[in-house]
Amino acid sequence: MSIWLTPEQLARTRPAERTDFATPVPTRVVSNGEWVPPPQSRGQKRVEQALAEVAERNGRRLGLSRREFLRTSAGMAAAFVAMNQVYGALFDVDPAEAADPGAAKQRLDALARQPIIDVQLHFVRDDFAWDGILALGEYAKHWNPILEKEGVTMQRYKFDNFLKEVFLDSQTRVGLVSSAPSDNPNNVICGNDDLARARKIVNGIAGTRRLMCHAVIAPGQKGWLDDIDRAIGTVRPDGWKGYTVGDPLAHSEFPWRMDDEKLMYPAYEKMQKSGIRNVCIHKGLMPADYEKSFPHWRYAMVDDVAKAAKDWPGLNFVIYHAALKPFLMPPDESLAQFEKKGRMDWVTDLAEIPGKHGVTNVYAEIGTSFASSAVTHPRHAAAFLGTLIRGMGADHVIWGTDSVWYGSPQWQIEAMRRIEIPEDMQKKHGFQPLGPADGLVKSAIFAYNASRVYAVDLTPSAIAMLDGDGLAAMRREYLAAGAAPSNLAYGFVAKGDGNG
Fold first, then answer.
1. pLDDT (tens digit, 9 = 90+) per residue, 17-33?
2. Range from 46-55, 155-164, 395-404, 427-436 carrying the lowest mean pLDDT
3. What is the domain partition of the chain in residue ranges?
């Protein structure tokens, strides 16, 4: 996890896991450590209260504790019922699903063969022991009372738990593991060899192509171009990952721009010649006080994307987090600002690049940005998606979740399946509807856009192979044994009593 938060900022947070009420959909904004989470809003508190009431009532009727009920598919549905009660009918959910686990499971099973490719996944290497992450581990008791007894270890962030949360507790079919650069080699959460090793292990278990990996680039650091040559020769990554702000853990010595001809173009040439053409760039997600606390914040903007994309049409530039800045004001105010101006800082700038510059090789990845929007205010999440699709096309928006920091990605999958852009927003801003869970738009975002970029075979015969592979067999055994999702997230939430 990339932690930008200062000790003072960390003191205003608590671990997402340490809570008396572990909900299937977070009822607080969970930060992955790259930005300060806002306090729980009144709306989120109302969602939490409504969900608790439904879980208590329906759980009692079914002979389940509240905690047990919330770990069922009906508990997941109940979370979206509660959100609709508070925010309006933005999520497609039948109240019957929240009352009957059978009805909820029937819907879940009906979507079980839907392809889902998650292009932003993380875990930490086996020998990683940076104190910042260990401190985060201590925070990780907030959402799970059991952890008060068991304690929290680095295992929560390591490969075994990653495998469980992503491939057993969710319907993710194919994933891509990524990492981040560091000015200090000891603070790299996963090196390129670690990522490639994970890919080999998962695909070996499966017997199919279930996991892809990035190779992280560190422009400006000593020998960084040689590292690209080595990665091409030995790692053979599925794509490249870079942070234009440099090391996200500190005030880096090596910020850079995508359109720096002297620094970056030799690297692009190597990437293009190698045939590894997917260049994924972290943008946005600045700390809340970024203008004061983060000296390189301008490098997180998207004003360097268009020229690079135009000069290198043979590469795909995938902008991670869709360049969304953290919420700098309460969600209602942020949404009101969007509805007044019709813009969303940096996100709209990114979405306008294809139309303004005539490029077709720029994509938006939505990890963390969709997750935080969906639990902050679903109308904001709808506006975020509508902005990207209107400007870039539904065929240029790519699914990612930033898990395992947020626990199993299944709640994010369900949020995307169920969300719709309200009719008034469609009319006012010229947005098209998102459509059904397995309709053309959501299916493109969930998998088919990434399948095109990463050459993942999603023909019926290929999907049948995934359904019958070793990882699918492992998941069937896991579910048959009665396993249930933990409902945990592994990040930061703001301290407070919900009155923020």
1. 555 567 888 776 666 55
2. 155-164
3. 117-130+158-467
Q: Is the pTM of this model over 0.90?
A: no
How many Å apart are CA 466 and CA 473, to the nearest integer? Answer: 10
216: tokens are 């992280």
Please classify residue 107 by burial: count the beta carbons closer than 10 Å to its beta carbon, then call 0-12 exposed, 13-18 middle and 19+ buried: middle
Reading the block at residue 96, the tokens are 């019957």
Decide: helix, strand or coil at residue 304. coil
Tokens representing 320 are 């991670």
The least confident of 58-62, 184-188, 295-299 is 184-188
Rounded to an integer, what distance in angstroms lies between the CA atom of residue 27 and that of residue 243? 29
| Helix, strand, coil percentages for the chain (3-state, nearest 5) | 50, 10, 40
Please tell me the distance from the alpha carbon of residue 388 to that of residue 467, in angstroms, as a whole number. 32
| Closest to 404 measured CA to CA, from 18, 121, 155 | 121
Residues 390-406: tens digit of each pLDDT: 999 999 999 999 988 77
Q: Which residues contact 120 (CB under 8 A, 6 or more apart)?
A: 176, 178, 320, 365, 367, 368, 400, 401, 402, 403
3 state DSSP class of 313: coil
Helix (H, G, I), strand (E, B) or coil at 294: coil
Give the chain's end-to-end CA distance (angstroms, integer).
Answer: 26
Tokens of 91: 């999520």
Each residue's pLDDT tens digit, 210-260: 999 999 999 999 999 999 999 999 999 999 999 999 987 777 889 999 999
Homologous superfamily of 117-130+158-467: Metal-dependent hydrolases (3.20.20.140)
Please list, residue by residue across 368-400, b when 16 or more beta carbons sit within 10 angstroms of its beta carbon and e when fewer do: bbbbbbbbbbbbbbbbbbbbbbbbbbbbbbbbb
Q: From residue 348, give the alpha-carbon distance in Å to each of 204, 340, 373.
A: 41, 14, 15
CB–CB of 286/247 below 8 Å?
A: no
